[in-house]
Amino acid sequence: MILLRPFSPTDIPSVMEIVRRSLGETYPPSLYLTVHNLWREGFLVLQAEGVVVAFVAAVPSGERVARVLMLGVLPERRRMGYGHRLMGELYSNSIAKGFDTLILEVRKSNKEAIGFYERQGFALTGEIDNFYSNGEGAYKMSKTLQS
Ligand SMILES: CC(C)(COP(=O)(O)OP(=O)(O)OC[C@H]1O[C@@H](n2cnc3c(N)ncnc32)[C@H](O)[C@@H]1OP(=O)(O)O)[C@@H](O)C(=O)NCCC(=O)NCCS
Q: Is the pLDDT of residue 29 over 80?
């Protein structure tokens, strides 16, 4: 059974594992609490048979704009529509909150994610040099939400 629900602090170990395995990063647990407290319905997890296997985290970024900070699906759970389902729920929650635009940054080398976001209706809007700690640049992407 698939369950989509807001993140809860007890999900921190599972989300940290997804971030480590899908994004190669380790952030302090306090980061997840901060994001959770900024906008509860913007931080969502997807549970399959009781196990958290994917999540998306977005925060307000201006009156009508939200910014997707992270999206990750465990490698063995990809191409099953989980990313799509998380983003769909995020679009609904964003519209309900009065946001009309979602923005994000993605590594220039991350062709899979760039393709995924394009098929989600995001368009390239710019680039930022040296955005990541290893010096890699980012593409900026944006999607207008239809209410
Ligand atoms: C990008 C990412 C989140 C996508 O998650 P996902 O759950 O695999 O996404 P979906 O399954 O919804 O869609 C991916 C593809 O699988 C396809 N798909 C979905 N269900 C499918 C199924 N049952 N059978 C075959 N293909 C399927 C989708 O059509 C989609 O194809 P497309 O990319 O050609 O449009 C995932 O690859 C990931 O975690 N990557 C590493 C982390 C990352 O890069 N995050 C984004 C930057 S922050």
A: yes
The CB of 19 under 6 Å from ligand 1? The reply is no
Mutate to test the pocket of ligand 1, among 44, 78, 89 (most ligand atoms within 8 A of CB): 78
- Indicate the domain borders of the chain: 2-144
- C-alpha 109/C-alpha 77 separation (Å) is 21
Say if residues 62 and 86 touch (Cβ distance below 8 Å): no
Pocket of ligand 1 contains residue 116 by CB under 6 Å:
yes
Query: In whole angstroms, what is the distance from residue 102 CA to residue 142 CA?
Result: 6
Ligand 1 atom closest to the Cα of residue 116 is: 33
Kindly report the protein residue whose alpha carbon is nearest to atom 9 of ligand 1: 83
Check: pTM over 0.90? Answer yes or no.
yes
Query: Mean pLDDT over residues 4-22, rounded?
Result: 98
Which tens digits make up the pLDDT trace of 36-56?
A: 999 999 999 999 999 999 999
The CATH architecture to which 2-144 belongs is 3-Layer(aba) Sandwich (3.40)
Mean pLDDT of the chain, nearest integer: 97
